[in-house]
C-alpha cells in the first residue's frame, strides 16, 4: 500500500473509472458467463459498472486512487433498499444483458445471491476493481483500508461476494472469512460470500443473520 494515494471518488470520476475498469470487470468468471466475451461484452460491462457506481454514489463511500487506477464501492449499514428499487435495478440490468437463453438461470443466480444477504447490519462492498495495468501494486488493499478502518473503530462487520476463487486469499489477509459457496452460473461458475468481523470482535456462526 506504500505510495498509493487513496481519496473519495466523485461523480466526475465515474466515466473514466468505468472505462478503465471495464476490462477487469468483464474478465471475471460470472461477468463473462452473463455478458460473454470480446469487445461487445466489455461495452456491456461499462454499462453495468455505470449502474453500480450510480447505485453507490448517494452513500459517499466510493474510493479511488490519485491516478484513477481502481475503485471500491461501499454501501453503509443504514442504507435503505426497497423492493421497488431492487426491481428497477434488476430491470435495467436485464436490458443491458439483452435477450438470451441463459436469462432464467441468470435470474435464479441473482435471487440466490439475494437470499444469502445478511440481515446483520454491515458495510457492504459491492465492487472492488483495479485496472489491468495497475494490478499487483497493493491498490486493492489500499482502497479497502478507509472503510475497514471505520468497521474496526465502530465495531461493524463487512460483507462482500467474489466469483474468482484466487480472491479468497486476498480477502483472507484482510480478515474476511468464507460464509457460503454457491453455484452462480453455467460452466461451473461459483461464488463465495465473505464476512469480516471487526478486529477484536467475535463473529456470528455460519448461517446467523441470513434471510
Number of domains: 1
* Helix amount: 40-55%
Give me the side-by-side strand order of the main sheet: 1-2-3-4-5-7-6
CATH superfamily: Gcn5-related N-acetyltransferase (GNAT)
CATH topology: Aminopeptidase
Rounded Rg: 16 Å
**Helix-strand topology string:** EHHHEEHHEHEHEE
Low-confidence stretches: 202-211
SSE map:
Elements: E1 6-8, H1 14-26, H2 29-35, H3 39-56, E2 62-65, E3 70-75, H4 83-97, H5 103-116, E4 123-130, H6 139-154, E5 158-162, H7 167-172, E6 177-183, E7 190-196
Parallel strand pairs: 4-5
Antiparallel strand pairs: 1-2, 2-3, 3-4, 5-7, 6-7
Helix pairs in contact: 1-3, 3-4
Question: What's this, in brief?
Answer:
This protein is an alpha+beta fold and 211 residues long. It has seven helices and seven strands, in the order E-H-H-H-E-E-H-H-E-H-E-H-E-E.
Amino acid at each position: 500500500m506504500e505510495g498509493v494515494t487513496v481519496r473519495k471518488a466523485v461523480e466526475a470520476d465515474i466515466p473514466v473509472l468505468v472505462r478503465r475498469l471495464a476490462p477487469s470487470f468483464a474478465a471475471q468468471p460470472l461477468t463473462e458467463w452473463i455478458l460473454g466475451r470480446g469487445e461487445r461484452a466489455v461495452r456491456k460491462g461499462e454499462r453495468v459498472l455505470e449502474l453500480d457506481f450510480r447505485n453507490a454514489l448517494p452513500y459517499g463511500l466510493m474510493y479511488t486512487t490519485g491516478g484513477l487506477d481502481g475503485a471500491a464501492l461501499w454501501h453503509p449499514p443504514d442504507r435503505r433498499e426497497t423492493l421497488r428499487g431492487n426491481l428497477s435495478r434488476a430491470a435495467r440490468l436485464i436490458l443491458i444483458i439483452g435477450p438470451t437463453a441463459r436469462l432464467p438461470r441468470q435470474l435464479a443466480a441473482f435471487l440466490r445471491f439475494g437470499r444469502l444477504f445478511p440481515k446483520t447490519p454491515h458495510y457492504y462492498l459491492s465492487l472492488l476493481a483495479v485496472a489491468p495495468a495497475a494490478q499487483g501494486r497493493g491498490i486493492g488493499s489500499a482502497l479497502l483500508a478507509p472503510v475497514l478502518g471505520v468497521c474496526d473503530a465502530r465495531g461493524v462487520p463487512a460483507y462482500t461476494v467474489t466469483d474468482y476463487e484466487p480472491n479468497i486469499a486476498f480477502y483472507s489477509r484482510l480478515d474476511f472469512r468464507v460464509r457460503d459457496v454457491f453455484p452462480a452460473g453455467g460452466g461451473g461458475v461459483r461464488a463465495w460470500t465473505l464476512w469480516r468481523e471487526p478486529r477484536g470482535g467475535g463473529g456470528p456462526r455460519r448461517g446467523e443473520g441470513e434471510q
